[in-house]
Amino acid sequence: AKPAAGNDAKEESLRQTAARTLNSLGVAYFEKQQFPKAIAAFEDALKYDPANPDMRTNLGMVYFQQGQFNKVVETLKEVSITRPTDQRVLTALAVAHFAEGRYNEASSFYERLAPLVPNDPVLRITLAVASQLAKRPDAARLLQQLPQDAETQAQYHITLADAYRRRQQLSAGIVEYEK
């Protein structure tokens, strides 16, 4: 039985080494903006260590960079549970859901981010917009909590108008642009 146990430990060590090496390769490709190669390296790394949240996050960031928002959500949803305060993961998921028009889900991730970065005005604006678009009951309260200066209000209405435009709701978008 001892040789088998020794082999299992050696095999696990080799798997971890392969996963780390492929992850490092993926990071290098990402930094050189060779995104298809980075995706392949991270996917291969995850074959050796499928539960590794760092490797999963790295893969999610490449998908995010490429605008593959459904893959961002698919890749990072479990990481957001095991690492509930990881700002990169929460931000990527919030933006991905927002970009895909899933405003209720986006709001949930922006709400989780808010206490982590309490002074981020863009986060607060986007949370208010996502809540408005999701028709959440707290939308009016979130809008009232925004600073009332002209710049913040303009950013809110432009962000809302852009979202309406992306949803092909042009008349609602024009109303917001004019505010």
Question: Secondary structure elements and their pairing?
Answer:
Layout (H helix, E strand, L loop, with lengths): L1 H30 L3 H14 L4 H13 L3 H14 L4 H13 L3 H11 L7 H13 L5 H7 L4 H17 L3 H9 L1
Walkthrough of the structure:
With 179 residues, the protein is mainly α. The protein has ten helices and no strands. Helix 5 runs antiparallel to helix 6 and helix 7 (121-133) packs across helix 9 (150-166). Helices cover 79% and strands 0% of the residues. The model has no long low-confidence stretch (mean pLDDT 91).
Estimated helix fraction: over 70%
Give the number of DSSP strands: 0
Strand content: under 5%
User: In DSSP terms, counting alpha (H) and pi (I) runs of 4 or more, how many helices?
Assistant: 10
Mean pLDDT: 91
In short:
The chain has 179 residues and is mainly α. It is built from ten helices and no strands.
